[in-house]
Amino acid sequence: MSKYTEDDLREELKTQEYEYGFYTYLDAETFPKGLNEDVIRAISAKKEEPEWMTEWRLDAFRKWEAMEEPEWANVTYEKPNFQEISYYSAPKKADPNKSLDDVDPELLEMYRKLGISVDEQKKLQNVAVDIVVDSVSVATTFKKTLNEKGIIFCPISEAIKEHPELVKKYMGSVVPKTDNFYAALNSAVFTDGSFCYIPKGVTCPMELSTYFRINEGGTGQFERTLVVADEGSFVSYLEGCTAPSRDENQLHAAVVELVAMDDAEIKYSTVQNWFPGDKNGKGGVFNFVTKRAVCETNAKVSWTQVETGSAVTWKYPSCILKGDNSTGEFYSIAVTNNYQQADTGTKMIHLGKNTKSTIISKGISAGHSHNSYRGLVKVNSKAENARNFSQCDSLLMGDLCGAHTFPYIEVKNKSAQIEHEATTSKIGEDQLFYCNQRGIDTEKAIALIVNGFSKDVLNKLPMEFAVEAQKLLEISLEGSVG
Amino acid sequence: MSLQDKLAAAFKGDSKNATVENYKKEAFEAFSQKGFPTTKDEEWKYTSLRSVLKNEYGIESAKATNITQDSITPFLVAGLDSYKLVFVDGVFQASLSDSIEEVSVKLLSEAIEDASYQEIFKNKYNTLAKGFTSLTDLNTAFTTEGVVIQVAKSKAVSKPIELIYLASGETSAMLLQPRNLITVGENAEVKFIERHQSVANVATFNNVVTEVFVAKNGIFDLYKIQNDKDDASLVDATFVAQERDTVASVYTFSFGGNITRNNLSFYQNGPGCDSILNGVTILEGSQLVDSHTLVAHKSPDCQSNETYKGVYGGKSTGVFNGKVIVDQAAQRINAYQQNDSVLISDDATINSKPQLEIFADDVKCSHGCTIGQLDKSALFYMQQRGIPAKEAEALLMFAFCSDAIKDVKIPALKIKINQMVADKLKVNIQFDEIAE
């Protein structure tokens, strides 16, 4: 990859609003709008799912109907009308079973625009990709290499058919159907997503990656990801998201479940760049996601996220530290600009002995946006020697935005050691002056300072993602400093 | 009959003051709709009032029994020359109280009827408390007594004012709802010590509301001492509205009681304000102390400083919810908040929620929250030098709490607090001598 300099960035900034805002015309098959049991049966039938799966969905749907949409988050938005959404949309020509050569050339062109090449380039970068457009997984690369190791990496619809015993055992085990309003909705209508199983003692030789894209208008995306790392295994998983620019609000309600068995380690990185709405806050994706991991003895789960997109973000990747000596980590950068709203953070539930958790959250607010950190650190009475360190820093750019922190700390064990600190500040005039003095213009200086502010988190990202994330940060903050 | 029904039946809502009558009716309406808070309310998530509400309260206020000077002495600050205002079961005790000439003191029941107080009821009374929680509304609807204290412009009150509220009921559980209104004039300075104490052999529930208005350049200090019996509960709501260049501090020392809920709210309405909120909580048994603080930064160039320390033993529960809101207009403010807790028993719980909501960019806001243990190497060091383990622990805990005590401006009170800390930690150490 050629070196990406800050001058390139500036050139880009001049022309860009939302880089991924294109719409690819794909001949798509879309269900009529609305949601009822028939729609769910139809989705299930479309996916050729076994009976148990249909029942599972219907059960979730019935429970969802009795639930109320939560209102506690520090965000305001017009509630989606669930009957106005189409719950299934699939590019017609794409067929996951065919080889790459058969993939719709328009799709390939779209990936090129996204910066994902499903071909050689990724081979060099050693990343296996599963791509979900609208609701359907369209391409999974590198199956063979992974198969040799016994790793299963496939669309979840395929996993339901081919590995029902694994899916049955783990799906809903971390995030139950009735966990919350949007998880229940997802359980009822999810159309695809990725499934990954790493066998005992296997270190996954490459980064696994899923790319999500909402393409059609009037649709929602409900994908479901399930990663199971068996004893002593390791996997690094990447997730990226984009959507076209539209005037309407689109709903994205995903569920991610991670299971880390004894001594296993999962590293889950997300670069979320759903369409954030235009400068006046029109349109954009509602991103209401439930992500949770269970850590058994000596297991480790690390969530890293870069949140630059979405009109409204509402997500809390969590770790249940069930086994002794397990570790949970959460590294997050959330950037909001214009009229974006983000209410994001994590939950660390310490149940086992000697469990450790680290939370580093960096929030950057600009324009009229609001950025909230909401986190929970809970130490149960049996969790001896639990250790937590949390740090939440906010950076404010401009005086119309807001930065908020809502940390909940609940401790029931006297041997726990909990530290939490939060700061809020703006970019100091002295810092800018210092840079200006040395010939760095203000825009570059800000990029430099933001980069330094986010460094703790950026460092945790896999290499390719870190570059993308840095670019995203700068694009997101374009024009926010006068 | 539930307490809420009982209250509804007892509600009269008439007052000789039209403004107050209006407030009473409004507040009762609001309370009837909301009822008592439950753990489903976000603000009451960790504090259940069930153990308080289950008691059979006598609604009509009892007549004060024979309380003598001797029975109140233990609750006063020894060796402190102060003005004392004593209430027993909601009734003012002139014989036990001092007359104060430096400031204007009027009982709430009298002030309501006094024409010269019309202005203050119109402009100040209930302006801060209105609708804050259903319990403040309950107080507004039912309160019968309290004090209205006005400190005149440029008056530095020579002695601290001690407000003592005793409960002495013998037959049925008591619900007491005192209401205070304090105004501090321009350039004036005043210190208060407030204590609610039960000497009753029945359960008591104090639902207190205090509104304080500090005018330009005023200095206001309030020290709350809470060390009540295990069947006494307290829900306190104190509001402090600050005009420009004022300094207001509230210290809360919570050492006991069944359920103690402190709602402490500061509103910085002018530039150059300084707000200080300090608290020390030392608990044992099944006590619960819930400190809910709010600092609303509404003006530029202000400061706030908050330090809360807690030591929790037995099956006690500590709750800390510190909210700092910085409005867009409040540029160049400096807000600091620190909450440290030590759990010393297996069954103790701490729930802490330091919360920042910031809408201005040129600010310095930070909060810190720690939960941990005493430093083992420090304990070992002291034991090596012949200090018994228990005392070594007490010394460390005293040091831990001293950040929130050291700035107490009344020396006699400081000695008293240090003594109470030593008692709580069950050691016989004169902390003052060490501290000096």
Give the biggest sheet of chain B: 11 strands, mixed
Radius of gyration of chain A: 22 Å
Quickly give the structural class of chain B. Answer: alpha/beta
Radius of gyration from the alpha-carbon trace of chain B, in angstroms: 21 Å
* Through-space gap between termini of chain A: 32 Å
> Stretches of chain B where pLDDT falls below 50 for ≥5 residues?
none
Largest interface: A-B, 34 and 36 residues
The number of E-state strands of chain B comes to 21
Strand content of chain B: 35-45%
Q: Can you tell me the number of structural domains of chain B? A: 2
Number of helices of chain B: 11
Whole-Å distance between the termini of chain B? 56 Å
**Fraction of residues in H or I helices of chain A:** 25-40%
Briefly note the structural class of the backbone of chain A.
alpha/beta
Could you tell me the mean pLDDT of chain B? Answer: 91
- Described by its quaternary structure, the protein is heterodimer
Strand arrangement in the largest pleated sheet of chain A: 4-3-7-9-12-14-17-20-22-24
Give the strand tally of chain A: 24
Protein name (chain B): Fe-S cluster assembly protein SufD
InterPro entries (chain B): Fe-S_cluster_assembly_SufBD, SUF_FeS_clus_asmbl_SufBD_core, SUF_FeS_clus_asmbl_SufBD_sf, SUF_FeS_clus_asmbl_SufD, SufBD_N
Organism (chain B): Wenyingzhuangia heitensis
Family (chain B): Belongs to the iron-sulfur cluster assembly SufBD family.
